[in-house]
Protein: ABC transporter domain-containing protein
Amino acid sequence: MKQVLQAQQVRKLYRLGDHSVNALAGVDFAVEQGEFVAIMGPSGSGKSTLLHLLGGLDKPSEGEVILAGNRLSELNDQAATLARRHHVGFVFQFFNLLPTLTARENILLPLLIDGKDTNGYEERLLTLLDLVGLSERQNHKPDQLSGGEQQRVAIARALITAPELVLADEPTGNLDTKTGRAIMQLLRRSCDEFSQTMVVVTHDPQAAIYADRVIFLRDGLVVQQIHLNPQEPLAVRLKMVMDEMEKLAE
Ligand SMILES: Nc1ncnc2c1ncn2[C@@H]1O[C@H](COP(=O)(O)OP(=O)(O)OP(=O)(O)O)[C@@H](O)[C@H]1O
Structure:
């Protein structure tokens, strides 16, 4: 299987005045195409930092991230931006929707930024609007949508270019259980049907159970990884994730 993403001995040191925070202390892993990986760990364990480095939004202090065959440290800023644009869709906790644009226009934005003709994407847009359940609300602006609906717009926006890799930071944060489950099922379907790769940071075991693999971070290090079988009942997977969380909390 093709590897879409690799982290090699990734370290991140934040300097704060006269002291520094070791946010990542040497993280190694690889993600294969079509794989769904959840990253879990206590607050401050380095999850968001890692996601930013994996997507080339920030640079490691040491180590290397290889994204779709590109060694990010060897790219200049412009080349890194293009690699990101062509290979990665981002879903952040604060949806970063443009308030003056409708849901539909926000979803099409990555194509416009990349200078693409959006006409050729009409069918994909309609499919995505349907998948995220927003066909009826495509002409609403963000302030006319609920938090869950805004989150679904952000997810459709991340998927419109059919990126090989989707990086999501707490995609179910602040959502009710039902909407959160629908979002995770949508990401899972994107893996299964379009062979897209997902890396999702979450503190919620109910969200992590949709992954093939859960990576646990603590103090900036990978301390455990477990594989989940999507064929197993949700309750079995949930127990596996929660047992592991409990062990790591000891
Ligand atoms: N820009 C920054 N400057 C300085 N320190 C930072 C910065 N960003 C994160 N940190 C520190 O790095 C460590 C890891 O933070 P990070 O946000 O990656 O953790 P996290 O696991 O995502 O936490 P949470 O679950 O609370 O979002 C923390 O100690 C945090 O305070």
